[in-house]
Design a protein that fits this description.
This protein is an alpha/beta fold and 194 residues long. It contains 5 helices and 5 strands, in the order αβαβααβαββ. The longest helix is centred in the middle third of the chain and has 18 residues. The relative contact order is 0.17.
Length: 194
């Protein structure tokens, strides 16, 4: 569980970002905003390059991944019941020792997206963030907000699309992948053997 650990993408992550960027070559992005963590920033950089969008990347701390606190960098199997609750009952989950709760992540990421929505400027934004942060950001747009994980953690380098019309956001697509689906790694596993 990487959380706030600031590690770059691995080769697989770079390849998924490149494939995703090439698939987005017909999309004109007006702005790009990323989490300051290296893996999100590098994903944004690759997608912009491969899609032919030559725009700067701006950074916003509200897009950071959940803070795992004292459990940062641990395997899910080392987190015990705390890790299990994170996936199985996120809104009853009391948070990681020295870290954040799901409600904390929802508050900061939804503050970010609501600010963008309020602009309602008709522009296309590329936002590069992390799995838990993305789920938190769109949670209030979900028909069933209690289904925080949509049945699974977001797939690596998947796209979620939100359209805004007259100040009203609409969730159009969740977890769209542009690469071969056989490469998907489903991290929403409720057991502790990893």
């Amino acid at each position: 569980m990487q959380g706030r650990l600031d590690q770059p993408l691995n080769d697989s992550g770079r390849e998924l970002a490149a494939v995703t960027g090439r698939a987005m070559k017909d999309i004109r992005f007006d702005r790009c905003i990323s989490s300051p963590l290296k893996r999100a920033a590098e994903t944004a950089e690759i997608i912009l390059r491969e899609s032919g969008n030559d725009i700067p990347i701006m950074f916003d701390d509200r897009l950071l991944e959940i803070d795992f606190g004292d459990l940062e960098g641990k395997k899910l199997s080392e987190m015990g019941e705390v890790g299990n609750m994170f996936f199985t009952a996120p809104f009853r989950f009391k948070g990681f020792p020295g870290g954040e709760t799901i409600q904390d992540v929802c508050a900061r990421t939804q503050d970010f997206i609501k600010e963008l929505i309020a602009e309602d400027d008709g522009k296309n934004y590329l936002v590069s963030t992390h799995g838990c942060a993305m789920r938190a950001m769109i949670n209030y747009l979900n028909d069933d907000p209690d289904d925080y994980w949509y049945g699974h953690a977001p797939y690596n380098c998947s796209a979620t699309v939100v359209e805004v019309e007259k100040g009203t956001p609409r969730l159009v697509e969740v977890d769209k992948v542009y690469y071969d689906r056989s490469l998907i790694v489903d991290r929403y596993i409720r057991n502790t053997d990893r």
